[in-house]
Amino acid sequence: MADFETPEIREYPLIPHIHEGAMAGTKPFVAKPEHQKALGFPGELVENWKEVAIDKMGDLLGKYRSLPVFLDSCVKCGACTDKCHYFLGTTDPKNMPVARQDLLRKVYRRYFTFAGKYFPKLVGAVDLTEEVLQDWYSYYHQCSECRRCSVYCPYGIDTAEITMAGREILDAVGIGAKYSNEIIGKVFTVGNNLGLPGPALKDTLEGIEEDVKEDTGVDVRYPVDEKGAEVLLITPSADFFAEPHVDGLIGYGKVFHQAGISWTLSSYASEAANFGIFIGSYENMKRVAMRIREAALDLGVKRIIVGECGHAWRVAYSFWNTLIGPFDFLDPRYPAPQHICEFTYDLIQRGALTLDKSANDHRVVTFHDSCNVARASRMGNMPGGQFIIPREVIKAVCNNFYDMEEGTIGEGTFCCGGGGGLLTDDLMEVRVKGALPRMQALRHVVEEHGVTHMAAICAICKTQFAKVLPYYNFSMDQIISVHQLVGDAVVLGAKQ
Amino acid sequence: MDFLSIAYALVFYFATFVLVVGVGRKIVQYARTPAPLKIPTTPAPTTGTGVALRLGGEVVFFTSLFKSNKWIWVFGWLFHFCLLLEVLRHLRYFIQPVWWWVALIQPFGKYAAYGMVIGLLGLWGRRFFVDRVRYISAPSDHLMLVLLLAIAGSGMLMTFVDHTDIISLKAFVLGLLYGHWQPLPADPLLLIHLGLVAALMIVFPFSKLLHGPGLLFSPTRNQIDNPREKRHVTPWATDTGAGTAG
Hints:
The complex is a heterodimer. Chain A is mainly alpha-helical. Chain A has two domains: about 35-175, Orthogonal Bundle (Fumarate Reductase Iron-sulfur Protein, Chain B, domain 2), CATH 1.10.1060; about 185-400 and about 450-490, no CATH class. Helix content of chain A is about 50%, strand content about 5%. Helix content of chain B is about 70%, strand content about 0%. In chain B, helix 1 runs parallel beside helix 10 (about 190-205) and helix 8 runs antiparallel to helix 10.
């Protein structure tokens, strides 16, 4: 299937021995000059890149408290060394969180600390060289910014913050990754990651309305740009057509229909994803997010609900209020923003939906906690609601549910392997190998409980699993949207 | 006053100065650098009290490390707890009269040195025997453990083998505190022990020992999870234009 070997799933997960250089040189395509410039970055590697890189590092050290604290505090205890799915899947020691951080830390020490300036060998400080720069490009694109390491670090050091800083420096010297930077450009010019223009979006949604009508005999609406709607739904653009995403969108529509709440999508802000976070660029993240505020004001909605997307929910939940708030123009009775699972859960709690669980009886379901939802956000009003609410929604619509093993779900969840801006074919080896721990846990519940489907609430997870499941002898349609389960179980029509 | 006593007195003034000013400067740097976005590792507490408990748990019980790796936790916690007992036990050289609870912990503090050494050896062993930890260890990581082991070892030799003149030692320490210097007993073990402690104090602000204050400033641990309820605002990140767009 490819020019690398898919790691073997063992009966029990093992911590592998390290193999230096196992993934050296693996890296994504470099962004073209036009993609770079659209985001305000130099088109190609600048002549005085060393100086620019060190200046940028200094700039970031003064802007983000996380950086000096994380770079100073690590004691190299080793607690994180077996926590990264990319290390477990690739065995490359530079994919251990601490070693990934050290790629930046050793340069930080050399240029910004007393010990590194005067005793570089002693503390492992090095000059910034071409080789170090290439290592940054390679290994900061073998991190999905999933934060699993930060759960286990005694000081909460979050490698995602280091990776973001690394990518910011790379962008500043002119070598960004094509995948993320091209996509951010598309959001600015077209309105979404997929580059789907407004008219095409309208056509697609009309097609979905026809399909649902054909399927159910009921006129469920999938409206776009409807002024005065109560709810603006911001969802990843993958939901508009790709499988299994679109079945989730169909589910959202059915829930809104049954709840009798008017809603709309926006052709201007037709994207929940915000790849600005992946490249650590505050400015680009804010610019992407601002379209949503503008759309909400333009359409005059009272609420904003976010569809199934992991990092988008992190940006929405944790950052929107800072980036594009305050949301004083929205109905204060509802959280701003609200997750679609919170919305559906609320309706279920109030008995507002009639659900036929037997519609999902042909499925035995498990749930994959998406990293950004699990470790960088919340749902509901209690800590950990992000684990409880999606599961309660699934259990309300489905008779057969089994969790994967403790330590591979919840706050310890393993990334799908494709997050953080790595969901590109040029990183297929990283993606397949990084999926190993999740595939291992899935294999376990498949054998133990006959699980047939894994549900997720993240467009990246869904796309990634559809692609990598076959490498591990599963089938690509075993990954489904949580709201596909909901949509299949919702009984349409007057409440019975 | 002999030369040695004067030298040690000066070294300790210098070490204290470096420690206090160095760590103080770092704390000021951490405190002044903004944390523009809410990034607590969730699930995170939704109240200030909750955050205090979370940080307290990290400081006292190393809760995240416990989740992570039981061996590192056992060795690391044993070392830190015993070090704390040792430091408290040594308060008796700095105060007169000695507080009752400092007197009370003396016998435990004495044997805590063994715990320290076991913890340190365990942590050091990992740097040789676990390939992942061996890979990430720089010379300074080994040296730091050697330094701490040497401090513990020289201290233990004085406690259990070759006693030093602790009456004169206390006079020397109090002399330093109150500004009328007294001679330091010229006992080689004591000189080694004190010299290494001074070295540790001097190294502190320039090394990974900053993990102490660092933990308290770690945004993933010290932030309250309430971004929807309360708008998080910092100087450079939240320009006034945001609220007026559209």
